[in-house]
């Protein structure tokens, strides 16, 4: 009798689950891969392209391969949220033969759909438009944004960005721009106009000009913007070498005297870094009325020119709601005169509201996005697939001394060539303790 009752109870529970929690059932996800070629007329093969899907609940991966129509299906997927990525490489020979554009390097196309909800209501065909981006000569190599322990380490004052020469030629850092990218920082703030993907709808910014391109896809927006000084050939960087832009170019392992005359030190030097040999620093003390006491100007390290900033120093968002881009322009452009726009608030911003430089994506050499380490804290992507189809993060989050670092792809004649597919999920790893000039 007990067995019969148990069977009845289990059956009732199962029926209730199906009735009240239909998303527990499995479903299929149909998708199509296509090339976004802006009506170029080129035709690239769309079969045998691998699509990778990652469950944000289990962390497990699945892959499928497209048919001759670019179609594929993930079958029997548990309801939930998924990251979907495609990275497809066309050889230099094939790309030249198809387009007539001569190239000596493979061309990489990317597409991604992040945090995609899949359930029984998912009946539409998901189209993944592959876009090619610039494979950078300069690369963002390492970003130490997390900072170190708040009581044992250096907090956030030891942050840095490292830029790498990934070519086989000497390049000059002079007039290279480095920017921290701005976008939506909270999923609970409802005061902004948003796109369908959940990111800011910059086209709704006050006085936005749309005649020179789509504000959401043809531009990025700068929270911080600085430029490497020099006359053109002042700062050479050899092949396979890099330069470091430090928030404060000091040895943070050792005590130093702040601008208020007080000693600043750390309890555990192993948790922080020596930035005294950084090639450049972001010193805000020359133009801020009240800079941080820890913002010391190292006279041996050149200062970058700061065009735009927030806060009291070059403090990167240590939870990971950020991204870094680097670009150069020709003599026809005066970056200081580029337009700046307010965030796209639903109400008219005040006259004193902060504005952000609008940076044309066509000038960007390399860009990478960073997201929080906790999936539920992640935000809609700031960068399109042509700039970065993925994102990087440090696994243990803020104040942990960890940095994201680009992976080594191969070594040629002793020169390290870093991985660059325009997908930071694939291109980046992490260091448990940030280390300038390290490799992974």
- Rg to the nearest angstrom? 24 Å
Give the tally of structural domains. 2
Terminal Cα span:
64 Å
Strand order of the largest sheet: 3-2-5-6-7-1-4
Q: What's a quick, concise take on this entry?
A:
The protein is mostly beta strands and 440 residues long. Helices cover 7% and strands 33% of the residues.
Strand-helix topology:
Layout: H1 2-20, E1 26-35, E2 50-55, E3 61-65, E4 71-78, E5 80-90, H2 92-99, E6 107-118, E7 126-132, E8 138-144, E9 160-165, E10 171-172, E11 177-181, E12 219-227, E13 236-237, E14 242-246, E15 256-257, E16 263-264, E17 280-281, E18 305-308, E19 322-327, E20 340-342, E21 355-360, E22 364-370, E23 403-406, E24 408-412, E25 415-418, H3 424-427, E26 428-431
Parallel strand pairs: 1-7, 14-17
Antiparallel strand pairs: 1-4, 2-3, 2-5, 5-6, 6-7, 8-9, 8-23, 9-14, 10-13, 11-12, 11-19, 12-18, 12-21, 15-16, 19-22, 20-21, 23-26, 24-25
Care to describe what's here?
The protein is mainly beta. It has two domains: 23-132, Sandwich (Immunoglobulin-like); 138-431, no CATH class. 7% of the residues lie in helices and 33% in strands. It has helices at 2-20, 92-99, 424-427; strands at residues 26-35, 50-55, 61-65, 71-78, 80-90, 107-118, 126-132, 138-144, 160-165, 171-172, 177-181, 219-227, 236-237, 242-246, 256-257, 263-264, 280-281, 305-308, 322-327, 340-342, 355-360, 364-370, 403-406, 408-412, 415-418, 428-431. It has a seven-stranded mixed sheet with strand order 3-2-5-6-7-1-4. Strands 11, 12, 18, 19, 20, 21 and 22 form a seven-stranded antiparallel sheet that branches. A hairpin with a 7-residue loop joins strand 6 (107-118) and strand 7 (126-132). It is globular and about 70 Å long. Residues 1-22 have low confidence and may be disordered.
